[in-house]
Amino acid sequence: MSVAGDTPETDADERVFKALASSTRRRILDTLAASSRTTGELCAAFPDLDRTTVLQHLRVLERADLVTGRRVGRERHLSLAPLPIKRIHDRWIASYTRAAVDLLDRLDS
């Protein structure tokens, strides 16, 4: 659902926040941060989930541009794409960190 004034950047941020809201998707990102995996290897890394569930989570991550895939023969190789997380960090987390540090400085004074 779009709100008046939403920009493509805002929509992209919403997709990233939605993707990161799931602990399973964060676990998938952690797995891919350690090393690229084929779809089969990634599914095997989550024996508690069926293949369809892993693929559904992957679709959400790909729509948020957090995961990229490339075909090599019959295999699909998946990799972490960290730029959307950096964008979130730069836009949101860094400014809140500065505000928290400023507040602590004022409390120490």
From TrEMBL:
InterPro entries: ArsR-like_HTH (IPR011991), HTH_ArsR_DNA-bd_dom (IPR001845), HTH_MetalResp_TranReg (IPR051081), WH-like_DNA-bd_sf (IPR036388), WH_DNA-bd_sf (IPR036390). One of its GO terms (molecular function) is DNA binding. Pfam families: HTH_20. Residues 5-100 form the HTH arsR-type domain. The keyword Protein biosynthesis does not apply. Keywords: DNA-binding, Transcription, Transcription regulation. SUPFAM superfamilies: Winged helix' DNA-binding domain. PANTHER family: TRANSCRIPTIONAL REGULATOR, ARSR FAMILY, TRANSCRIPTIONAL REPRESSOR SDPR. This is ArsR family transcriptional regulator. The lineage of its organism: Bacteria, Bacillati, Actinomycetota, Actinomycetes, Mycobacteriales.
